[in-house]
Amino acid sequence: MEPPTTTSTQEYKSFISWQCRVRKQCVRELQGRPTEGMSAGVHSISGGDEKSRMNFLIVKQDSHNLTSEFRHIVRKSQDSADWIKNGLRILAERHYQDDFNFSNDLTALFNLDSSLAEALVTAGQCRLQFKQDSVEYAFNFEVNELEKESPQFQATYWHNHLFNPTIPGQVCVLSFSPLLEGA
User: Fold this and answer.
1) Alpha-carbon distance 20 to 92, whole Å?
2) pLDDT in tens, 107-149
3) Residue 146: how many CB atoms within 10 A of its CB?
4) Is residue 125 part of a domain?
């Protein structure tokens, strides 16, 4: 049976709330180490086996201030341990508190030569399946490559750079927009 093509807005809001809870736990209890629920199995829209597994970010609708803070943290010190400590403090104190402030779109960062990123952009759509403990969500998404200047690209780049000091300067960031009913 083919998976549904759209999802209710309410179900997706529940997913974003769950993502905020999972991420709060990650930054407060696990020193920022991603949990299983922060990654998803990537599937074709038409179904089939998992093609890959990857981590995603949820990005605030207005991410400019947070992106500026992350950029400042990275640029003011050469010590990546300071980056992580200061980034986790910000994320734990206030970032995931208000789930209604997040965009519906998810983002993911790839190397420029990523065959998975190329395949996702070429397909234009995918199904992502998230699971942690007894909670499971699966949604269909439209996939697009973001321009380097876009706020979502910048938020994704600087968030990832905090936790990965060896991130290359040239990367690809994809946006995953859920296919929601009435959208």
Assistant:
1) 11
2) 999 999 999 999 999 999 999 999 999 999 999 999 999 999 9
3) 20
4) yes
Tokens for 41, please give them: 């199995």
Handedness of CA 93, 147, 119, 170 (dihedral sign): negative
What is the rounded average pLDDT for all residues in the chain? 90
Residue 1 lies in a domain: no
Quick check: helix, strand or coil at residue 142? strand
Domain count, the chain: 1
Virtual CA dihedral for 103, 105, 111, 114, nearest 10 degrees? Answer: 180
CB atoms within 10 A of CB 120: 25
Residue among 98, 97, 81, 3 at smallest CA distance from 44: 3
Q: How far apart are CA 42 and CA 116, in angstroms?
A: 10
Q: What is the pTM of this model?
A: 0.91
Q: How far from chain centre, in Å, is Cα 65?
A: 18
User: How wide is the angle at C-alpha 138 spanned by C-alphas 9 and 53, nearest 5°?
Assistant: 135
Q: Is residue 102 part of a domain?
A: yes
Distance between CA atoms of 127 and 154, rounded to whole angstroms? 24
Which residues, 6+ apart, have CB-to-CB distance to 112 below 8 Å?
168, 170, 171, 172
